[in-house]
Amino acid sequence: MTDRLILGIESSCDETGVGIVRLGPDGALELLADEVASSVEEHARFGGVVPEVASRAHLEAMVPTMRRAVEQAGIALSDIHSVAVTAGPGLAGALLVGVAAAKAYAAALDKPLYGVNHLAGHVAADTLQHGPLPKRCVALLVSGGHSQLLLVEGLADRITEIGSTVDDAAGEAYDKVARLLDLPYPGGPPIDRLAKQGNGCAIAFPRGLTGPRDSKYDFSFSGLKTSVARWVEKQERAGEEIPLADVAASFQEAVADVLTAKAIRACKDLGVDTLVISGGVAANSRLSGLAAERCAAAGIGLRVPKPRLCTDNGAMIAALGAHLVAAGAKPSPMDLSTVPGLPV
Ligand code: KG4
Ligand code: ZN
Prior knowledge:
Layout: E1 4-10, E2 15-23, E3 29-38, H1 40-44, H2 51-73, E4 82-88, H3 92-109, E5 113-117, H4 118-130, E6 137-142, E7 147-154, E8 158-164, H5 170-180, H6 188-195, H7 222-237, H8 244-270, E9 274-278, H9 285-298, E10 301-303, H10 307-310, H11 314-326
Parallel strand pairs: 1-4, 4-5, 6-9, 9-10
Antiparallel strand pairs: 1-2, 2-3, 6-7, 7-8
The structure holds 5'-O-[(R)-(carboxyoxy)(hydroxy)phosphoryl]adenosine (KG4) and zinc ion.
């Protein structure tokens, strides 16, 4: 069998992504193009993603992003073997733009269409950098929209959610705390930078859902955010200066502590020796640092893809599409619908 080129289209949130992956006869993946157009700056003044704004931006960016990806890969669109697209979960209007584009390309090129799950795509992203996954692994998916612990026994159709956030996603907590501290949106990078100058043990912020009767693998970040708000208010009322770096570092420590502790506990309980961390928050320096320390101590292998592959992109969707093609999965019907609340 010859090489097959898989096109991946992502539009579930504020990133318009087009990726092209070469699937070799032995199942090996090679990333040929990864183009992303982000509307994040258009959302910054609102402090979060505005769905209408995101949909319009996808509509404007889709074709130019596709052109850039095809050029970057040095291929002709007609060389594509199949088209993969995020069908959910995500923002309804944003998903529609990507799925409509994917259908148009698949129909015009007369190629199979694969509607895929965005969350599985985040896990698949790691295979572009670190090769095939072991038979079983645990994935910690942390971004602005999701915070989940997954047991991955096959990218095509064997991913089970074992835990998730009961309120805010980890990235959402970063964004909300950044707002509270008058830092720009998205809040992860500025908090990460500021935290490097602070002491993570300075303030004992709560670790959500870590009591003996709490769910073992679920997360909660809204109490932590409220606790940061209360602490800052109290300082202000007392006329004290806010030690911003210590607040950022202590908040970051609380998030990293809970995420890594629960992920490693899941690995141990399930007898799994590999942890994958993906999603925008995987770029966090304390999260990856603490995960590396704790995984090494527990004899667990850690895989964290580079930040560009962790945040939303089309390459991860192309990678997942390639795994489906390699597994002989059935293509989706041309009337494929979007599923904003699609579970993993
Ligand atoms: O995966 P992503 O690009 O988009 C989705 O939400 O799907 O993730 C974006 C989130 C934002 O909430 C952002 O604040 C967070 O990832 N983030 C970080 C860092 N870089 C991005 N959070 C903590 N530390 C970082 N270095
Ligand atoms: Zn995502």
